[in-house]
Amino acid sequence: MTWTGGRYGDRATCVLAPNPSPMTLDGTNTWVLREPGGRRSIVVDPGPLDEAHLEAVAAAAGPVGVVLLTHGHADHSEAARAFAGRAGCGVRALDPHFLYGDEGLRDGDVVALDGLELNVVATPGHTSDSLSFVLPAEHAVLTGDTILGRGTTVVAHPDGDLAAYLGSLQRLRDLAAARQVDAILPGHGPVLDEALPVIEHYLRHRAERLEQVREAVAAGAVEVADVVRTVYADVDVRLWPAAELSVRAQLDYLSRDQP
User: Fold this and answer.
1) How many domains does the chain have?
2) pLDDT at 257
3) In this structure, what CATH number is given to the domain that contains residue 183?
4) Is the pLDDT of residue 132 over 90?
5) Rounded to whole angstroms, how far apart are CA atoms 147 and 132?
6) How do residues 41-85 score in pLDDT, each as one tens digit?
7) Is residue 213 part of a domain?
8) Which domain covers residue 27, as residue numbers?
């Protein structure tokens, strides 16, 4: 299924960045959020420094009150400072390196703008600075790269951590089970309208991969590349460098005698 972005609900619009690849799927999703009748927008993950993309985001957003980052990977954050400078607003993120202005983000924060509210949920694992943003009025959550619209994400070792990632998935699962979140607005790929089964699939997938890594090591796989060839034989070889990061994260997890 090809994803081209567009409107979701009454408050969210995805402007798709022109950076498709095996890692970014159709491209990076830049989310523009605005309360109906509100004057200003929140822009989440302005994406790459591409002039045509930034013009499209600006056209969709109108006046912008703040830019938020789900995490610092360049395909999400590269244009943040330049876009915010043009819009006359700040950039808020967990990692202080990406701030434009003096206000960061942390777990439990509420970002409020012209009647729109976002709840900040720390979801480390893909990276140490990964955040998700719950949009209560739409029963939706913006997940960045923690959950994708297609496939599964990489745990980007050494900054990424599998134990933290599993904890983040459990936290999102709890929100979905409580019906606080029904839909996932990911950083790449299409909107997912049924959050709970997607998150449960992610948890099962991680458990299965971890068991496969255990078995590969027990069978004599010594090098990370050997584990990748064994465990990720069904995955496009262009994704094997990313799979290597996840394998390193899995081996680190197993070395800590996790259950």
Assistant:
1) 1
2) 64
3) 3.60.15.10
4) yes
5) 10
6) 999 999 999 999 999 999 999 999 999 999 999 999 999 999 999
7) no
8) 6-194
